[in-house]
């Protein structure tokens, strides 16, 4: 657990910010290498993994070095919130030498990741800078750029919602509304799932005092299920990255490719048989009727209905010897997603 201690001054310096495409790029590397249990990312991950095989080896080296779990080269505080990807990369290339070297020397020490030519970038090597920029550009074009307008819209909506609550009801209400991801016990903000770099904080309580620096709350699509705290080496505010929740309908809209039909996108998200089951259940049906209409065994139909129910898309009611399935609001929203 992480416990973040606020002073009165810190409470006046809390803001919500979208860090931008370079931050999401770095966080997406973690999703790419460690998919985790959230299946809503599979629609992004599968084509990205396939496309990454065609990119230069430099992209793979960069992924190993920048993946957050590998020891945390902290691009977030080096670059700050930047809306435009090219501007963010330019800021990275113009970052002061001292902080740049400090950050880029952290991963090899903590995680045993060899810096190689990437470390040369931190020491001002022009050839290494060109390789770094080219690798970032290649991966950005594959994994982030095609989805960025929709990712940005999600992040902007999350930011606006938090700011609205804070402006209307105050900081206490805004932080309290972020449960269970965060727990606000004034003047301490608790992060229950915090494990720290290389899980060094797992099973421990880590105390952090802001001491008047303030805190930036940064929502992220690609952030892991547990928030992470990033503390600049100077007196700038600490940055707390937290994941925004993706429901199935949001995931369908987010990863849908241009020109892709809604039916095909739904099948890509759930699988063809399960998508067909969802469409049949929209009219209400028993398990036997579901099996007949999609051409599978009753046992298979029951399994698909169970998965959809556990995802919150379907509700099932037993009456004597039959089980009847209907859509939840979430399931209907997914089926009717534009």
From TrEMBL:
Record key words, sorted: DNA-binding, Transcription, Transcription regulation
GO molecular function: DNA binding; DNA-binding transcription factor activity
Pfam families: HTH_24
Record domain HTH arsR-type: where: 264-336
Protein name as catalogued: DNA-binding transcriptional ArsR family regulator
Lineage: Bacteria, Bacillati, Actinomycetota, Actinomycetes, Micromonosporales
